[in-house]
Amino acid sequence: INHTSKQKKFIPAGSVVLEGKKCGIVTTDTINDWLVIGYTPLSLFNPKESDFARLKLGDNIKFRPINENELEVGAFKDVNHN
């Protein structure tokens, strides 16, 4: 997906973004021109933990809609990709 805006903007951690043919989840607040298509309340990066990244290379991610309550409390059935 190509987007025409190259104006950089604030993108909060947890934003789901597109850039070209790549999709990503922003782990820290940043400034960029990526196209934001969604948001997750799940914290994906914690440098204080020994296993600091929740996702590993090759993981398959399935996005699903959540309601406002899940967004506010970050409720997920299982953070181990279920």
From TrEMBL:
Keywords: ATP-binding, Hydrolase, Nucleotide-binding, Transferase. One of its GO terms (molecular function) is transferase activity. It comes from the Bacteria. Pfam families: CT_C_D. Residues 8-52 form the Carboxyltransferase domain. This is Carboxyltransferase domain-containing protein. It comes from Staphylococcus aureus.
